[in-house]
Amino acid sequence: MSGEEEENAAELKIGDEFLKAKCLMNCEVSLILEHKYEQLQQRAEDPTNQVSQVFEKSLQYVKRFSRYKNPDALCVLGNLCPETVEEATSIVPSLKTKGRVHEDEAIEKMLNDLSLIKKFE
């Protein structure tokens, strides 16, 4: 981006470093930020490594709006693209729990979300 042109995310004027960036899901960002947060907390004695307010708010945001709590199951489902809840639970048995009515709805929602992502690729 030229020095004269100012970055503006609302108008999709972003820096060159973002042009080849990969899109991440909130659950993936949450894992990355949680790991970084733990590293920063271990070095908390050093005042130069304090967690910024922006970092904390970003972490809170992705935790709050992350629909998926099991990234391993999500990756398997994303890679194998099952089309039904039954197919998904046979591929990832850990998705099965006792009172499955609500879980089936959550799995169905996840499969629908993944199929939308696939359509836009």
Architecture overview:
- With 121 residues, the protein is mostly helical.
- The chain has two domains: 21-65, no CATH class; 71-120, no CATH class.
- 56% of the residues lie in helices and 0% in strands.
- The protein has five helices and no strands.
- Helix 1 packs antiparallel against helix 2 (53-65).
- The radius of gyration is 19 Å and the shape is extended.
- The two termini are 26 Å apart.
- Number of beta-strand segments: 0
The 3D shape can be described as extended
- Largest β sheet strand count, sense and barrel closure: none
Helical fraction equals 55-70%
For this structure, the quaternary state is single chain
Mean pLDDT: 79
Low-confidence stretches: none
Radius of gyration: 19 Å
User: What's the helix count?
Assistant: 5
SS content category: mainly alpha
- What number of structural domains do the residues give? 2
H/E series: HHHHH
Distance between the termini: 26 Å
In terms of DSSP E residues, the strand content is: under 5%
Domain RNA polymerase Rpb4/RPC9 core: 16-121
Main location: nucleus
Family: Belongs to the eukaryotic RPB4 RNA polymerase subunit family.
Protein name: RNA polymerase Rpb4/RPC9 core domain-containing protein
